[in-house]
Design brief:
By secondary structure, this protein is α+β, with helices and mostly antiparallel strands. The protein folds into three domains: 143 residues, Glycosidases (TIM Barrel); 34 residues, no CATH class; 90 residues, Sandwich (Immunoglobulin-like). It is built from eight helices and twelve strands. The strands form four sheets. Strands 5-6-7-12-9-10 form a six-stranded antiparallel sheet. Strands 1-2 form a two-stranded antiparallel sheet. It has a two-stranded parallel sheet with strand order 3-4. A hairpin with a 2-residue loop joins strand 5 and strand 6.
Length: 293
């Protein structure tokens, strides 16, 4: 689902150029959790026509979602990954948005540890006319995105070398903490029945504050609620979790994941006072009922 990527990318980065002009509202991200397309034969301002198709006859497991891939990164003029566009806490938020979805997640090589090198578009052609055609085509493509400066030469070996991954980065420091955070999200997705279920009918996705998306998923007795704050400032949400208790499963602000420390309660109960949660910038908070802490 390109719509999932575009909805997530725009709320994280604020970019609105090119085909991103069709996106940017947090409600669109909420919508794409409920239904894998934002545009299902709706009018697209960027295309200036109706676009998309009805996905309702397709099960959730048939849709692949991501925050980055070779097209979306490699087709940028400077090949910036999200690690070059966002602060560290927002990288954890991007990971959670994908891995806690009801769809099949796809990870782009190096994103799991925040690879800082770009993934540039590179070629190795022998036909001079084809090489020049690629160069000119790239320049025209970037015009719609109002790119400043000139993209690296796709035929240059330097462009290829500058795109190579640095695998050892994922073993230490914040890169290692981000990689561990990905592993924890994957563990939760595997072990919590509500998250393991590839079904977008057993969920709600609601914008509960201007920058906060609440995702609720369930399977039999297991229920999960996720709050994600897509802003660089704290946000306050009213908590009405339902019958519990609800035990905290993950808080992206925990020092384990390279942050200052969790301020969220270890457990939520219905009718708790005060019934407000203050979510830190780029928060990811996961609570579950029907499981132990």
């Amino acid at each position: 689902s390109d719509d999932f990527h575009h909805a997530l990318h725009t709320v994280l980065t604020g970019e609105r150029h090119g085909y991103y002009e069709d996106f940017g509202a947090l409600e669109q991200l909420a919508q794409v959790y409920r239904r894998p397309f934002v545009y299902a034969w709706d009018y697209s301002p960027h295309r200036q026509r109706f676009h998309g198709d009805d996905p309702d006859d397709c099960p959730a497991w048939r849709f692949v979602v991501c925050s980055q891939n070779h097209d979306q990164v490699g087709n940028r003029a400077l090949g910036e990954r999200l690690s070059g566009l966002l602060p560290f806490p927002a990288l954890k938020l991007a990971a959670a948005a994908v891995l806690l979805s009801p769809y099949l997640p796809m990870l782009f090589m190096g994103e799991e540890y925040g690879e800082p090198r770009p993934f540039l578009y590179f070629i190795s052609h022998g036909d001079p006319a084809l090489i020049e055609g690629v160069r000119e085509g790239r320049k025209q493509e970037f015009a719609a995105f109002h790119v400043e400066g000139e993209a690296p030469d796709p035929q240059s070996e330097v462009t290829f070398e500058d795109s190579k991954l640095q695998w050892d980065l994922g073993k230490t420091g914040r890169h290692g903490q981000l990689r561990a955070f990905y592993r924890e999200l994957l563990r939760l997705r595997r072990e919590l029945p509500a998250l393991a279920r590839l079904d977008n009918a057993s969920l709600t996705a609601t914008v509960v504050a201007p920058t906060v998306l609440e995702l609720r998923r369930w399977c039999d007795d297991n229920r999960v609620v996720v709050w994600m704050n897509f802003a660089a400032e704290p946000a306050t949400v009213t908590v009405a979790p339902g019958a519990g208790p609800w035990n905290r499963q993950l808080d992206a602000a925990d020092p384990t994941w390279g942050s200052d420390g969790s301020t969220l309660p270890a457990q939520l109960v219905d009718g708790m006072a005060p019934n407000l949660l203050v979510l830190p910038p780029y928060a990811v908070a996961v609570y579950a009922a029907g499981v132990s802490a």
